Amino acid sequence: MRKVHTRGRPIVANTLSGGMTGRHQTPANPRPVGIKDIAKALGLSNGTVDRALHSRGGINPSTKDRVLNMARKLGYKPNLAARYLKAPRQVRLAVNLPAKIASFFDAVRAGIIEASGPFQAGVDLCFRSHPTLGEEDEALFEEALVDGSKGIIIAPGRPAKLQPWIHKAKEKGIPVVCVATDAPGTDRLTCVSADPFISGGLVGELLSRMASGPGRVAVLTGDLSTFDHSEKVRGFKNSLDSTRSPLVLSAVLESHDDENAAYDQTRKLVLKEGQLKALYVSTANSIGVIRALEELDAECRLAVITTDLFPQIAPFVKSGRILATIHQRPEAQGRLSFEALYNFLVEGKCPAPRIKLNPHLVMRSNLDLFLERMSRAVSGNGLSGVQLL
Known about the structure:
Blueprint: E1 2-6, E2 9-13, H1 35-42, H2 46-53, H3 61-74, H4 80-83, E3 91-98, H5 102-116, E4 123-130, H6 137-146, E5 151-154, H7 159-171, E6 176-179, E7 190-194, H8 196-210, E8 215-221, H9 227-242, E9 247-254, H10 259-272, E10 276-281, H11 287-296, E11 303-307, H12 314-319, E12 324-327, H13 330-347, E13 354-357, E14 360-362, H14 367-380, E15 386-388
Parallel strand pairs: 1-4, 3-4, 3-5, 5-6, 6-7, 7-13, 8-9, 8-10, 10-11, 11-12
Antiparallel strand pairs: 1-2, 2-15, 12-14
Helix pairs in contact: 1-2, 1-3, 2-3, 5-13, 6-7, 8-9, 10-11
């Protein structure tokens, strides 16, 4: 059994059908494609193929392209577990993430667990949770600085508060990776997130193109001191201006990821704003907004675009209540944050200062495709086999 820890209590991944440990059973499929197979198919040496796959230099660009194309064609996947067998000892990583919003941050955790799977003998994951973005995360950061962690993954809701702690981590030689939102101007190693400025821009452009005439639009966000939230609003405003939108931004409301607050704010807004045509919910905290609209806008007069994709909002996308949702790919964010931190610690590879993911636009026409993909990911990422002891 593999163990990761949460607040001193281990999370044990049981061997269940489709669970995490199922990946380590003897596969029924033929052996995986290796470097020798690619070399044989192209008539090249193993060394040439190895240099192309690992960007080691000393290889003609056209030859490298041939190798990479053949690798994709044959379904080659690098043996990451073998690559990291050279790790000298177990690496303890602290993962401090909010409990809210679970639909998003549980998916980030799942991505981290999935990415750590090939290195289970060499990784000790210590998961800690604080209530929500920017609340009670300083104490958890302090714990991570003294518990033997070699690296820390955080979601900094209020970067200014964490800046001195991130600096202390750097002084102790402990790299910090931000996920989902950034702490610009600090000593963090890198940030992994869906590009928030682009996310807001997508929404602004879509609403502007579909607007039939002048009207007002409002944004419901979490907390503007959070970089992710403020950048989405900035991207949204920029898009309205650049497209010469007929829509005028009437309000930006902060719900602090509180569902009841979002419900109350939406009710007041809809009752007050007679010319309101659209709403942009820039956090995953959209259920309260939808509850209010179900009561006050039964005809779906308002165009609504939300953020993220989770089971509770899927029916509203299908019904047309939600025009579209911006999928921030939280599992991919989790995977990339783990890989950036682990590669830095084990191989000394410094990641780019920011690792930006392209946000995906989900509408009724492609919803089922995304739901199917998410279902497959959940059945294979280990969460179905995780239980608290």
